[in-house]
Amino acid sequence: MSLLKDKFIILRKMKYGESDLILHAISPQGEKLSFIARGALKSKKRFGGGILEPTHFVSFTYKESSEEGKLHTLQEASLINDFPGIRQDYDHLEFALHVLDCVGKVSQEGDKHSDFLFNLLGHTLKSIEIAQDVLVLKMHFYLRFLLQQGVIQPEPWMAPFLRTNLADSNTLISHRQVVDEELNNVENMVRHYIAHAVI
User: Which of 32, 81, 84, 136 could crosslink 107 through cysteines, CB 3.0-4.6 Å?
Assistant: First the structure.
């Protein structure tokens, strides 16, 4: 097994056994990788300070598995950004975890050509930190996500959301009426898509 180092956003964390963790994370290339962090619940030296948490942008040093579908072995982890503003209230955190779920459902192991998915996730997490209206940002994310996945075609009412950067979502608050009218339909499309996405 070769030793590799790369940056990731952690999508999911699961306890395994007494002290191990299994992690799913997405690379800057958009590839989803799975890791086992042995002794992570006991080792404060290698994995201390709550580094291994979903939403965290981290640097991993790991042993690459030689077998397809097997877990890579995490050796060290360091925190790059924990997006602290996400935890300002329940609505912001809930939406951040939902975004992770959406990306986690459609990202694939072995796919190194979906950097747009990693970028969408990273920009959304940054935007959640400063979002004045989570519902407006939710619409913004959903439309970009569905468009990237080829689920929808642009319609005139979507234009303000599709031509605005995620970092500027707060400028779309003036379109709140559109959000109120369309969000349920768009959210249902997202939930249906990720529930039936063939990965």
Answer: 32
